[in-house]
Amino acid sequence: MNKKKVILGSCGIIFCLIGGSLFALDHFVDRKMILEQLYSNVEKQTGRKLTLTNLDIHIFPWPEIQASQITLSNMPNGKNPDFITAGHLKADLNIWSLWQKKIHFQTIELSDVKIYLERDAQGKKNWDLQSIEKPKDISAIDANKVSRRKWKWQFNNVQLLNVECWYDDAYTHKNAHLIFTQAELNQLESNKVKFNINGSHHHADFTISGRVSHFDELLENEGIVSQPVKFQVNLTQYIRKQNIGSLRVSGTLKNLVQIKGYDITLRGTILNLNDLNQLLPHANLPSIENITLSTAIKDVASDNDPVAKPQINQLQLHTGKIKADFLPADLQLTSTEIIANDLNSNVNTQITGQLYGTMFRWSGDLGSLRSLQNNFFFQTEKMLSVSGKLTSANYNLELNGNIGGNTPSLDVNLNLLKYNNYFKGIGDINAQNIKYTGKITASFPLILSFFMHMSNEDLYNIYTNGKLTSNSIKVNQFHFDNFSTNVAWKNKELALTQFQLANNVSNFKGNILYSIKQAPPTITINLKPSSFPMKWMEAYFAIANVYTGQVTIMGDFFSKGYDWQEWKNNITGKLGLLGTDGKLEAEGLKHYIGQAASTLPLKESLATQCLAVRAQINPEILYFDTLTLQTNQFALNGQGDLNIPDQKLNLHFTPDIRLAAISASAPIRVGGTLSKPYTTFDKNKNKVFSLNINALTKSVVPTNYCKDALDKARNPLGISLKK
């Protein structure tokens, strides 16, 4: 027989057998039974009802199942009647699997899919699918156990086209809308499932791809699986078709629902975190440029400690410029670097930025990564270990110690090279070796998530208790080599007690209380007896040089305001000033008493027995109840006031002139301003001056005004109030 005829005949027989089998199969399949079992299984496993129409099984030209108008119902009382809808389903059918009562799809394709994710006001989620265990009907099983043996379902690949996903959260009042142009899941039969998703949201596009091993076991088990699932996910974002960042997440997972037993590595780069707000509009992400991240996180929970916090085994973060609401308005970070390569290495930090337009750099560490995690995650009293240097053109600072916790201890060394932002009314401040030793604690937990939402009220709950010292402070041209004070910040109040600022010619002592409990802030100063050259005060207030020598000043002062200028305009208080063994400068006195100086026995410089001033300070008036200047030749006693805004003088003096047995006095009034004073004589019974001749009583001792005047100056609180 001809071989060609044999081959052709054999092929013809095979084609007839296959064609006949397929024709018989089309009649063999019970579509109604398949749908009923499909509906029942889905409702039992999810608690939701599945519906579809137009279920067709095509044999020619290849085996395929098609359906349309597929819906899966929503949770009870949901906003939308449906949870998922799809316009069309198409699946490639493995024809040979039907003989084993198994429906095996090579590829399932769903198109025009709509997914409605929602959470109600009580926090219930519609994607929490609950299985329903119905009581078994024994009679039904017996009646159908032969003819209605259950079919098995199996599929390899799933492809979703034109997917829209809505998210509506009544619990947090957020919503979102995502569009997936294509989503593919491949190799679902194997232990290595692959997926690829292309999508968009608002003005942003993204792709997600990766693979997962042992995915079937993870889905079938609600608890911890024996074999960890390995996964890898790559996320790439696009804005106007420009790649703005990529993230790669890989690791293992033992529980999908509760996110347990994970060991995850995250690496990636993002051009600007703020761009992701177009992808996730409700995230309100800050503007952080050029992010490079690499971190490894592990779940260390166990049966003995089921709620253990995660463990960060590696942390590497680099960023460019940062603009965020949680940073002060005048602070801008231009670059940051945080590196800890393993659990036992130190968390090294490098930060550069600008504060009030001045560049600065921080270089230091926050202790070991292990201790940092223990403090943040495990300990009740949070403590942060910190050491490093902060430098700029204007200052440099060194920190070493612990902040927060039960046993805080912090050492700070600051060199303030030049600072005049807040104290322009005073002038430039230059200080070296400012040291702080003490404690800083916080009533709030020191956790990273907290700092993202920090407010001024939180900062006010930081408490300090320590001591400040320095051996070199310069304010304008005045240099001090001894500065010390106790520092306490608590309940929105800063207290500087036992304050001392001294050099070889001056020594300031007192207590300062600064409070921000109310607006505007207030400052209270209690000035203990302090000594300094009178020329300092004359230079600052533009007073003519009347007295040369050391003076002692004391008093209580109160003011309110946001800066030095407001403090000056709102100051109230009581002042005492005294000096002994100084010198009266004739030219300075002549500047204020003018022609009256001719009635005094003045020399160019005259030794004084005392200078005593007591005054009450109001916002506009400086009232003097004591103005005494006494020498061996004469004494001046007076009182009056100074209008502070206009610098107007209104002073009255009574001179007491003693020349051997003769004494004379001519009451003097000083008016005008500090820079342009004028003098008149106060008339006493129509006489310009009085003259007393004590020839018969040469032993009369001149009146000593110093004792009473100095006692008044040493007790400024005794001055009577003047409005």
TrEMBL record:
Superkingdom to which the source organism belongs: Bacteria
UniProt-listed PANTHER family: DUF748 DOMAIN-CONTAINING PROTEIN
Organism: Commensalibacter papalotli
Protein name: Uncharacterized conserved protein AsmA involved in outer membrane biogenesis (AsmA)
Residues annotated as domain AsmA: 2-199
